[in-house]
Amino acid sequence: MPQIDFFDSIRRELSFSDEEENMMKTLVKPQSRVLGKNEFFLQAGKYCTSVAFITSGTLLYFRENDNADKQVYDVLFEGAWATYIHGLVTRTPSDMNIQALEETHIIEIQQESLEILFEQFPKAERLSRRLTEASFIQIAQRAADLQFLSAEERYAKMMRDEPRLFERVPQYYLASLLGIAPQSLSRIRKDFGRI
Amino acid sequence: MPQIDFFDSIRRELSFSDEEENMMKTLVKPQSRVLGKNEFFLQAGKYCTSVAFITSGTLLYFRENDNADKQVYDVLFEGAWATYIHGLVTRTPSDMNIQALEETHIIEIQQESLEILFEQFPKAERLSRRLTEASFIQIAQRAADLQFLSAEERYAKMMRDEPRLFERVPQYYLASLLGIAPQSLSRIRKDFGRI
Q1: Using CB atoms, which residue from B86, B137, B143 is nearest to A142?
Q2: Which of B51, B137, B176, B178 to mutate to test the interface with A (most CBs of A within 10 A)?
Q3: Closest residue, chain A, to B177 (C-alpha)
Q4: Using one digit for the tens of pLDDT, what is the confidence trace for A44-53?
Q5: What are the pLDDT digits (tens) for B137-178?
Q6: How does DSSP assign chain A, residue by residue?
Q7: Which of A33, A74, A101, B6 has fewest C-beta within 10 Å?
Q8: Per residue in A61-114, pLDDT tens?
Q9: CA nearest B131 in A: which residue?
């Protein structure tokens, strides 16, 4: 299973001295956690009170609609930061589920530790701002693709940009993530297979 | 024309003392600017090097596709912050246009002034992080709507949440913003008129 180192990943965003890194570790108390297959990182109705860096595994963001169908909003793999920003910011019960699709190893940091960190070590707030900016750029691109690309074009882009999705996520979740019916995905896959 | 005060808006996000507010003003040198109708705040091919708070007016975010059709990504009114985050972060020429649809009054802050501000006054970085988080939540909702709502549902939501769009933005831009053809918007409007 592919693994990504937490501090390697942070160093790529912003440079910290060894001393600063140790200070951060002391302040935020990062906790290693293993989520079993199908275990929830966040369940609808509960509060989101932490952020998690995925060192290995897969997290599925979904809501259930009135027919108990899962609507898939995102899928994150090793190297990504997972949290529900809306829940963190509004401090209201979550309307989103975040579930492990396979055994998933995370490094979890509590929101209250982050706030202490930001107070005492403002440079960490820059890291947080940059990560949020990067997430913004990604989700803005996703909205633009849904707005202006056809389902076929979105599928081709997904194949090109995120092949892990096809290896590690069931078809019906991918259809939902593309915003199309499962039958449409089957048809598109067949058409692509023929080319 | 409705007007929004810049510092009132900032105070709603985060509380600052008068002294802090004066320090911020000195460091960031906010510039009042008036964009004439059709004037660009940002043009594709140019660099985005500033952020702007809109005190009155309307800004249109668009790209031109290969057929020179305008694809509309966003429309911002008084009270919103306008910038092209992708351009600011990557420091590459913009592939986005931001144009005034009517006379638009902005308070502009240069990126380099912001960086000095963040270095000397870390609390301002918190404001920036919060504004980015708020933008993230908004665009994530937009992506979700495009993914899971029908064109009719998106139209109804737009009417409910942002009536200013229907008063101040031409039909063909609204169709593009909804991700539908202008004829589809005409049909939906007719259907809604009948109810």
Answers
A1: B143
A2: B137
A3: A147
A4: 999 999 999 9
A5: 999 999 999 999 999 999 999 999 999 999 999 999 999 999
A6: -----HHHHHHHHS---HHHHHHHHHHH--EEEEEPTT-EEE-TTSPP-EEEEEEESEEEEEEE-TTSPEEEEEEEETT-EE--HHHHHH-S--S-EEEESS-EEEEEEEHHHHHHHHHH-THHHHHHHHHHHHHHHHHHHHHHHHHHS-HHHHHHHHHHH-THHHHHS-HHHHHHHHTS-HHHHHHHHHHHHH-
A7: A33
A8: 999 988 888 999 999 999 999 999 999 999 999 999 999 999 999 999 999 999
A9: A129
Interface of B with A (CB under 8 A): 65, 71, 73, 85-86, 89, 118, 122, 125-126, 128-130, 132-137, 139-140, 142-144, 146-148, 179
In this prediction, residue A193 has a pLDDT band, given cuts at 50, 70 and 90, of confident
Q: Which chain B residue shows the shortest CA-CA distance from A115?
A: B126
Top residue of B129, B150, B176 to mutate, by most chain A CBs within 10 Å, is: B129
Percent of chain A with pLDDT over 90: 75
Give the pLDDT confidence of B33-83 residue by residue, as tens digits. 999 999 999 999 999 999 999 999 999 999 998 888 899 999 999 999 999
Identify the structural domains of chain B with CATH numbers, from first to last: 6-120 (2.60.120.10)
Strand ranges (E), B8-133: 31-35, 40-42, 50-56, 58-64, 70-77, 81-82, 97-100, 104-110
What are the structure tokens assigned to B115, written together?
């960086």
Are B51 and B106 contacting, i.e. CB atoms less than 8 angstroms apart?
A: no
For residues A83 and A115, the answer to whether their CB atoms sit within 8 Å is: no
Query: How does the average pLDDT of chain B come out, rounded?
Result: 93
CA distance B115 to B101: 30
